[in-house]
Amino acid sequence: MRPDLSRVPGVLGEIARKRASEVAPYPLPEPPSVPSFKEALLRPGLSVIAEVKKQSPSAGVIREVDPVEAALAYARGGARAVSVLTEPHRFGGSLMDLKRVREAVDLPLLRKDFVVDPFMLGEARAFGASAALLIVALLGELTGAYLEEARRLGLEALVEVHTERELEIALEAGAEILGINNRDLATLQIHLETAPRLGRLARERGYSGVLVAESGYARREELKALEGLFDAVLVGTSLMRSPNLEEALRQLVG
Ligand SMILES: O=C(O)c1ccccc1NCC(=O)[C@H](O)[C@H](O)COP(=O)(O)O
C-alpha cells in the first residue's frame, strides 16, 4: 500500500522518495496513552498547533533548540497541540524528539513527517503522537486507505491539501481533520489566500469537521482571515525565529 512517488514534483518529491527508501519495519514499543488531538483543536477560540522546526528547505537552519524546551515553552504560551518534525535530512527531526516531547508535555502531538508507508503510522502511535500528517499530494487516491489504517491504530490524522483537487480527494476519503497548506510543497511558494479560499470551499461542499490553516503565519492580523472559519492554525518558522517562544505565541494569539 505504497503511493507512486515517481511523478511528485520538486522538493516534496525529493523528500518523500528519500523517506520511502528508508522505511524498514522493526518491532515497535507499546504505544503510550495520548490525549485527543481533535478535542484539543475544538476548544473555544482559534487553537494554535505550535511546531518544533529546527530547519527547513525554505528557511534553512532556523534555530538550534532542544525540542523538549521548545515544546514546554509552547505549552506555557498557550499552544493546544505541538507539531514535532521527525524528518531528519531537511528538517533535523527524529522519532526520538517525538518520544522525548511526549514524556515532557501533556499536549497532543502531531507527527510531522512525509508518510509514504503504513509502518510510519505505527511508529507515530508508538512514539507518542496523537495524530500523524497525511499529505494528499503524496498519497493521492490512497489517502482513504491510510486514514483507515490510522484509525485502526488508534491514531488521528491531519489530512493536508493545497489544491481544489486535493480537497476533493480529502473529502471523499472522509477526513475529519483537514489541513489547508498555504505553502506549495513543490515550489515552496506561500500564498496566504489559499487557506481561506479552500476553507470556504470545504464548508460549501458540506464539510463540518475540523479545519486547520497551515504555513506562513507570523503576525496576529494575518489570523483575522481565519476567524469564524478555521478551528486551528499551524505555525512553525515565525515562532522558532523568535527569541522567546512563549512570548511570541502569546503575542500571536493574544
Ligand atoms: O517548511 C518548508 O520549507 C517545507 C518544505 C517542503 C515540505 C514541507 C515544508 N514545511 C512543512 C509545513 O507545511 C510547515 O512546516 C508548517 O505548515 C508550518 O509552516 P511555517 O509556519 O511557515 O513554518
Can you characterise this structure?
- This protein has about 250 residues and is of the alpha/beta class.
- It has a single domain, classed as Aldolase class I (TIM Barrel).
- About 35% of the residues lie in helices and about 15% in strands.
- It has eleven helices and ten strands.
- The chain has helices at about 10-20, 35-40, 65-75, 95-105, 120-125, 135-140, 145-150, 165-175, 195-205, 235-240, 245-254, and strands at about 45-50, 55, 60, 80-85, 110, 130-135, 155-160, 175-180, 210-215, 230-235.
- An eight-stranded parallel barrel has the order 1-4-5-6-7-8-9-10, surrounded by six helices.
- α3 (about 65-75) packs across α4 (about 95-105).
- The mean pLDDT is about 95.
- The site of ligand LARABZUK has 20 residues, from α1, β10 and α10.
- Its EC number is 4.1.1.48.
**Share of residues in helices:** 25-40%
Q: Distance between termini?
A: 44 Å
Strand percentage lies at: 15-25%
Total domain units: 1
CATH superfamily: Aldolase class I
Unreliable stretches (pLDDT < 50, length at least 5) are: none
Mean pLDDT: 97
Radius of gyration: 16 Å
CATH topology: TIM Barrel
Ligands and ions found: the ligand O=C(O)c1ccccc1NCC(=O)[C@H](O)[C@H](O)COP(=O)(O)O
The side-by-side strand order for the widest beta sheet comes to: 1-4-5-6-7-8-9-10
Query: Helical region count?
Result: 11
